[in-house]
């Protein structure tokens, strides 16, 4: 759906509606195959961070189309491989150095949520603190919380929080796990190095 990479001039390129068409077509194919009770969610690119790429303004319109189509939930995300190359950053996710850096797709979620009334919103991106995540849900800024890197470091993290240990996720957000994933099985590089040196 990115105009940066989608240079097609057929029914799947050009206009916002055309770029969204492949997602709409996939939705209806899944719905036809699996029925109305099967939940269909989508992780939606919202900002490419490259000149001529997808912007939040365009992706907001696409999100509206997807919600009206019937997607049960939308998870806003951002960045693409080309943006990593252009910024010389080998890692595809933002580095988190302080609590202020956490929940970095929350501003995007706040814009999208009123536009997708027919769909739930899943928040991902730098979520490390259970109290912060709980507040986001209680304030109706998101309907679900999604995590990736913290669960690579601590697969049992949700149970730790559920059992009363509310300290933040131990993940350092270095994103090395997403680099090694391109070459083989995913694992936490930081945790593996700590175990080697202990």
Automatic annotation (TrEMBL):
<dbReference type="GO" id="GO:0016491">
    <property type="term" value="F:oxidoreductase activity"/>
</dbReference>
<protein>
    <recommendedName>
        <fullName>NADH:flavin oxidoreductase/NADH oxidase N-terminal domain-containing protein</fullName>
    </recommendedName>
</protein>
<dbReference type="InterPro" id="IPR001155">
    <property type="entry name" value="OxRdtase_FMN_N"/>
</dbReference>
<dbReference type="InterPro" id="IPR051799">
    <property type="entry name" value="NADH_flavin_oxidoreductase"/>
</dbReference>
<dbReference type="Pfam" id="PF00724">
    <property type="entry name" value="Oxidored_FMN"/>
</dbReference>
<dbReference type="GO" id="GO:0010181">
    <property type="term" value="F:FMN binding"/>
</dbReference>
<feature type="domain" description="NADH:flavin oxidoreductase/NADH oxidase N-terminal">
    <location>
        <begin position="2"/>
        <end position="164"/>
    </location>
</feature>
<dbReference type="InterPro" id="IPR013785">
    <property type="entry name" value="Aldolase_TIM"/>
</dbReference>
<keyword id="KW-0285">Flavoprotein</keyword>
<keyword id="KW-0560">Oxidoreductase</keyword>
């Amino acid at each position: 759906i990115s105009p940066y990479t989608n240079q097609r001039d057929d029914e799947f390129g050009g206009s916002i509606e055309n770029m969204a068409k492949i997602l709409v077509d996939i939705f209806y194919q899944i719905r036809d195959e699996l029925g109305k009770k099967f939940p269909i969610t989508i992780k939606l690119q919202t900002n490419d961070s490259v000149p001529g790429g997808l912007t939040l303004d365009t992706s907001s319109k696409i999100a509206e189309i997807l919600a009206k189509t019937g997607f049960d939930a939308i998870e806003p995300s951002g960045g693409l491989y080309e943006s990593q190359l252009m910024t010389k950053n080998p890692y595809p996710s933002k580095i988190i150095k302080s609590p202020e850096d956490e929940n970095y797709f929350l501003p995007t979620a706040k814009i999208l949520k009123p536009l997708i009334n027919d769909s739930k919103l899943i928040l991902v991106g730098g979520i490390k603190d259970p109290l912060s995540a709980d507040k986001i849900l209680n304030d109706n800024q998101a309907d679900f919380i999604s995590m990736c890197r913290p669960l690579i470091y601590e697969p049992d993290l949700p149970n730790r929080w559920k059992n009363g240990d509310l300290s933040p996720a131990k993940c350092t957000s270095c994103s090395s796990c997403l680099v090694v994933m391109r070459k083989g099985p995913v694992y936490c590089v930081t945790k593996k190095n700590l175990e080697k040196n202990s």
